[in-house]
Amino acid sequence: MTGGFGVVIPMYNEERGAEKCVRSVCAALAAIPSRNKLLVVNDGSGDRTGEILDRLSPEFPNLNVFHHERNLGYGGALRTGTRKAIEAGYDYALFMDSDLTNDPADIVKFVAQMDKGCDVIKASRYTAGGGMPGVPWKRRVISQAGNAVARILFGMGLRDCTNGFRAVRTSILARMNLQENGFPIIVEELYQCKFLARTFCEIPVLLTNRSEEQRPTSFSYKPETLRKYLSFAIKAFLGVKPKLKEEPLQ
Predict the structure, then answer these.
(1) pLDDT at residue 250 in the model
(2) How far is residue 207's CA from residue 101's CA, in Å, rounded to a whole number?
(3) Which of 41, 37, 25, 39 is nearest to 73 (CA)?
(4) Residue 19, pLDDT score
């Protein structure tokens, strides 16, 4: 993995946890010899998130901060982070959330699969060693049922299709034409991966719940969100090809 990887984290009104996130992820990255960087996208936060990130930047050489003047949504922040990872020449973009419900210590598991050359690496709650300790039972049931259906429809051998903790080759991301601005971008991305990637793998992770000191999660299982998740899975099942960007000339 000569090009290394960039960890893309979107933040919106996360002043309570922004510093802890940066310190935890940068500590994990410092222990990894591969070229790497933490790419944080402050998505138009109305609190002190941007101020905190700018204060931390001089302290952490492996931190790059990018600011949106207005909130563009989870998908918009991911697209900015992806573009920055591509422009920096990284082989992979690794996506994770800022609330540390996924442990930065698991990043080394992704690196092991990057070194093997896997195109798409998904964190999985539903493989041996994975789980969701502390997550409310209603969320667990909905997630388990939804992923059971998605697993069949996507047909890619993945047991956790909706997990946002994942890594994808930047050469594949550069061909994508992602439009979603909310959380469904995770499934839209996987749908396009089906037609662009050759290899898929999973690593076991434990997903925890957000701490009480943080603001409540903005994710919810709204009917419209579930409909979009399902629509991408159905298109993958039917073999409906997405409109992709042209492959760059060599």
Answers:
(1) 45
(2) 6
(3) 41
(4) 97
Sheet architecture: strand order including 200-204: 63-68, 36-43, 5-11, 92-95, 166-169, 120-124, 200-204
- Would 244 be classed as within a structural domain? no
Distances (CA, A) of 9 to 97, 121, 228: 6, 17, 23
Q: Which H or E element spans position 147?
A: helix 137-154
CB atoms within 10 A of CB 243: 8
Least Cα distance to 49 among 16, 8, 74 occurs for 16
User: How many structural domains is the chain composed of?
Assistant: 1
What is d(CA 30, CA 38) in angstroms, rounded to the nearest whole number? 11
Sign (positive or negative) of CA dihedral 172, 177, 180, 182: positive
Is the pTM here over 0.85, yes or no?
yes
Q: What is the pLDDT of residues 130-189, one digit of tens each?
A: 999 878 878 888 889 999 999 999 999 999 999 999 999 999 999 999 999 999 999 999
Q: The domain containing residue 85 runs over which residues?
A: 5-238
> Does the residue 122 lie in any domain?
yes
Q: Give me the CATH number covering residue 75.
A: 3.90.550.10
Confidence of residue 55 (pLDDT cuts 50, 70, 90): very high
Phi-psi region of 104 (alpha: psi -120 to 50; beta: other; left: phi over 0): alpha
DSSP letters spanning 10-73: EESS-TTTHHHHHHHHHHHHHT--S-EEEEEEEES-SSSHHHHHHHHGGG-TTEEEEEESS--H
Residues forming a β-bridge with 85: none
245 in a structural domain:
no
Q: Is residue 121 part of a domain?
A: yes
